[in-house]
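Entry 12.
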Amino acid sequence: MAVPLRVVRTVKALRATIAGFRSRKSSIALVPTMGALHDGHISLVRLARRLARRTVVSIFVNPAQFAPYEDFGRYPRTWKVDIAALAAEKTDLVFAPEVAELYPEGFATRIAPEGPALAGLEDKFRPHFFGGVATIVAKLLIAALPDIAIFGEKDYQQLLVIRRLVRDLALPIKIVGGRTVREKDGLALSSRNVYLTPDERKAAPILHRTLQESAAALVGRGSLAEIMAHGKMAIERAGFKIDYFEARHAETLVPIASPKEGPIRLLVAAKLGTTRLIDNLGVPLKRS
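Predicted 3D structure (tokens):
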């Protein structure tokens, strides 16, 4: 008989359950999510199970990372489907607090990250975002104190922000990046993909193809400026409105002027109709 998936709603219950895991010498991996789980999230859960004895998944739609013009209430909530998927993956614990549990009345402390959080990428278009992310991730990490926490590489700037957060706050937690999961045509999995029209869905994979072609050209040591200009035109011809298409240092997100300044990460964000998509790709530059 299958054991029911355990769900806790309070920090006190989360800590008590994890203390029980620790008493049996179990390592802990935490996978923070906002629910509406897809195969990309499930890949992170599977990675967590490989890296630790116990897997904890949080489901919390964080209001602090939504701007006033972004509809917090419209974010998809698929609780029953999410729980069924996590149960199928033999997840050990789900932490699903109410907003008041993590942001009680009078809550007055927030984190204002700098460094990779001010790289002029996502922060340029969503200036509120990383403050909200850093605050909730810090709260989750401090509440659970896992050995490992896993975040997807699709949100690459976010991954670097969280790594800096953990280092700066001296939290004894290893941050692991999970590889981006893609459709067969290369489109990165995202809860936003469902908003694409059929024609937009056909055009959407151009983002990944352009990243691949640009990365290949950079491996050949072509002109960075010319390669990026060519890629930008290809994306725009497919009907996208580009927010950014950038080559950055993969560890700091500082702008670079030459392929020799690597390691390099290519990052893109663009709107197709009303749907905003993001993607990124590392450039495996040859060593001279």
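Annotation: The chain has two domains: 7-178, 191-282. The CA atoms of residues 147 and 174 lie 6 Å apart.
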